[in-house]
Design goal:
Length: about 450
């Protein structure tokens, strides 16, 4: 850590400005990139015709967000309404202060790393900073004084808290393998050549690969990949913003520059979780195989190139999911987080803890595959069989949905009066009026 403490103030300022510019330019590029990629996937042109390669549309939308009328609802809380988007945007930028773009280099005669700073608990710092963004979403829903905004913020809060637990547990396995929570040290620990040790012998077989943790910790990688989509409220987990139910969720009352801050934070968060995934599981700034075996490509100045290529690949996966998968139901989504991901993570952490500090640490690759096979055997491939008309339960009760003064949906075994004519079973030959009369007598 001493190398970061020796950076002069002017070098820190250069790093801050460079990081800020890179994130802004990268966000503009990702907006354009997502539109182009979704258009290709869905065989449609979309708003990509203005300017060369559709760049004019992205620039026009950015300018429109900046100069559009920025209004606030009459009954909204003024201070919280203005503070909410700032909190979310600041949290999105803060996470990048400990993300390593490259290794140790010399800049104007000063030995430093291509990273703003690092901490002994940098990975935990990322989780803490990302959690601050939740406050921005909660305050947006509360301060807007709107039902749709409030429901969207409540959904987002439950969603982000639930999947942050899964995300944090998936990181624990990486900490055990790397022996550190420092992001730069986690990346360097993946530089070690991957070797296969034959059990109960002294035979060691080099594989020519680096120990990227997505190979050794397959369950953790899969859990993190699912959690990072849920954490960023992206499709198919975009339930806090789904237009079919909540107009635009917690963003409903925002426009202009304040809306642009949320829009910016969403894309930066998408890049942030992808950068963390790259750092923890994909070797960070380390070169790909087989380039890692060529000394020329191990130059630390190539690190940012490899790092950004990996992050952009993960962003492409985000876009792919948005363009192909339908939105989940909320109960399915929460059940996945609480009933599957957390339990699997806890079991996997115990397995990793038993072998992480032994000579058979690379055996986690086989153990992880074995765990996935067992889970698939227990829970996969079992689909409910559709009921035949004879197997469906007989509806015997017809009820009045407005009996208590409020509309109440039917419970299992109940039917609305206007639908009673399609009742199966003994009552199928009765007229709707006869069934309704019997239901009232009951």
């Amino acid at each position: 850590m001493n190398i970061f403490l020796n950076d002069p103030w002017w070098l820190i300022l250069i790093k801050v400005v460079a990081l800020f510019v890179v994130l802004l330019v990268w966000t503009i590029f990702n907006v354009w990139y997502e539109r182009r990629l979704v258009g290709k996937m869905q065989h449609r042109l979309g708003p990509i015709m203005n300017g060369p390669f559709g760049l004019g549309q992205a620039l026009a939308d950015g300018m429109k967000a900046l100069i559009k009328e920025d209004f606030r609802p009459k009954n909204a809380d003024k201070w919280l309404f203005n503070l909410a988007p700032v909190l979310t945007a600041v949290a999105a930028f803060t996470c990048w202060t400990v993300i390593p773009f490259g290794g140790q280099v010399t800049i104007f005669g000063v030995e430093t790393r291509l990273q703003l700073t690092d901490l002994p608990v940098a990975a935990v710092f990322i989780l803490a900073s990302a959690s601050i963004g939740i406050y921005g979403i909660v305050l947006a829903g509360w301060a807007g004084n709107s039902t749709y905004s409030f429901l969207g913020s409540i959904r987002s809060t439950a969603q982000m808290i639930s999947y942050e637990i899964s995300m944090g547990l998936s990181m624990v396995a990486v900490f055990l393998m790397a022996g550190s929570m420092s992001t730069s040290q986690i990346v360097e620990s993946q530089r070690i050549p991957l070797q296969l040790v034959v059990p109960f012998t002294d035979i060691v077989l080099p594989l020519g690969l680096q120990t990227w943790y997505f190979l050794l910790l397959i369950p953790s990688f899969i859990i993190y990949a699912i959690a990072m989509v849920g954490e960023t409220n992206r499709a198919p987990f975009d339930l806090p913003e789904c237009e079919s139910e909540l107009v635009s969720g917690y963003l409903t009352e925002y426009s202009g520059f304040r809306y642009a801050l949320y829009f910016l934070a969403e894309y930066i968060n998408m890049a942030t979780v992808s950068a963390v995934c790259t750092t923890l599981f994909l070797g960070g700034y380390l070169p790909f195989w087989p380039l890692n075996n060529i000394e020329f490509f191990n130059n630390p100045w190539f690190g940012p190139i490899f790092f950004m290529l990996k992050v952009q690949f993960l962003i492409s996966v985000f876009v792919w999911l948005r363009g192909t998968l339908p939105r989940l139901r909320y109960d399915q989504f929460m059940g996945l987080g609480w009933k599957a991901l957390i339990e699997i993570s806890l079991i996997w952490i115990i397995v990793v803890a038993l072998v992480a500090n032994t000579q058979y640490r690379n055996a986690t690759l086989g153990l992880g595959l074995a765990l996935l096979i067992v889970l698939w055997w227990l829970f996969g491939g079992k689909h409910p069989v559709a009921e035949t008309p004879e197997q469906r339960p007989v509806v015997e009760e017809v009820y009045d949905p407005f009996a208590g003064g409020y509309p109440v949906p039917p419970m299992p075994g109940q039917m609305l009066p206007e639908l009673a004519g399609v009742v199966r079973g003994p009552a199928q030959d009765q007229t709707p009026a006869e069934v309704t009369a019997e239901g009232k007598e009951a």
